[in-house]
Amino acid sequence: MLTGLCDDQLVEDTKRQRLTAALRGCDRILSGTRPLTMREQLAALEGSGLLDDQPDHYGDGPVAVLEERVAELLSTEAAVFFPTGTMAQQVALRYGADHSGRDAVALHPLGHLEKHERHAYAQLSGLRAVWPTTEPRNPTADEIAALAEPVGTVLVELPLRDAGFVLPTWDELVAVAAATGAAGARLHLDGARLWESTVYLGHPLHEIAGLADSTYVSFYKTVGAISGAALAGSADLAAYARVWRHRYGGMAFQQWPAALTALAGLRRELPLIPRYVEHARTVAAALATLPGARVYPEPPHTQRFRLWLPGTAEALDEAALTLAEDEKVWFAARWQDAEVPGLAMTEITVAAPGLDWTADDVAEVGARFLARVAGRD
Question: pLDDT by residue (tens digit) across 205-257?
């Protein structure tokens, strides 16, 4: 059994290395961005003025500057840097439980805490999940009002990634915030990709965060930092968060590379996000014209959406790799076999490299990609 697991990991590592090498070698990229080496990531900071000061020492210096910047963007009293979003959200939920005396949390079964964090909220803090809905969308105000038991925190993921990067409308989110308050609970936003949610919601970051008692944002998602997250909210929450960050092992001696790449990413990416979201709609519409294609949501709510195409995940990944290696064009990879037989799914991310793709470009390259898939069948 152990040998089999090691072999599977070796295969996965080899595939990842091939994907990275192929993507780095491409001249044109539709989905995602070109991966950078460590040297390239630090070199990108040259000329920014961010490398001239002293490194942080247990959370001061550039880490403190980043915290101030996030608090300013979200118009909260304070923000606290965390090495991971998983850690930040555990602290947010623990705060809600401690201040309400309620160990239940309302969250979605497709949410990040249920799908990708090994149920850390339960294992580390003894909290329990209550599911307001199992529908592939965020909960409604009526569903919050109808919860079978009191909860300390209602968690809303913006966007809900594993449902297809879907968002509520602004009015729906306002209603959820009101229902949460009426239930005597705190509203926490899992805003890992909050940065790209403003276009669909039609409101700026500070107005979205203003509906909630606490908000988590990621720096490596959307913004492009090497790592890191922040938890924003009241001064009382921040003081609590700093204590529990230390207890969870997040009080690292120096974290300046993460902080500096986050500051640079906020400066570089935030002004471009509306263009990414708008162009994602163009890309999605073009992809939907491919034979057998399905796109969701249509149009996309953010700069990311899901795409299904005919074929197996293995065949589609191999077609993406050979297209990249032979023609230096990156279409889309990391396919997963779908529940519908004969289809595989991937997530499309439209960022800076994809902005120069016209609808005709997408359709033409997509046809060449599918021809490679058919050639493997």
Answer: 999 999 999 999 999 999 999 999 999 999 999 999 999 999 999 999 999 99
Beta bridge partners of 344: 309, 337
Q: Element (H or E) spanning 158, and its range?
A: none
Reduced to 3 states (helix: H, G, I; strand: E, B; else coil), residue 93 is helix
CB-CB contact of 66 with 262 (8 Å): yes
Length of the chain in terms of residues written? 377
For residue 232, the cross-strand partners are 79, 215
Q: What is the pTM of this model?
A: 0.95
Both 175 and 96 in one domain: the answer is yes
Going by C-alpha positions, the residue among 203, 202, 346, 356 that lies closest to residue 279 is: 356
Determine the 3-state secondary structure of 183 from DSSP: coil
**Three-class secondary structure of residue 107 per DSSP:** coil
Tokens 């090498």 found at: 21
Which CATH number goes with the domain that contains 230? 3.40.640.10
- Tokens 């230390």 belong to 246
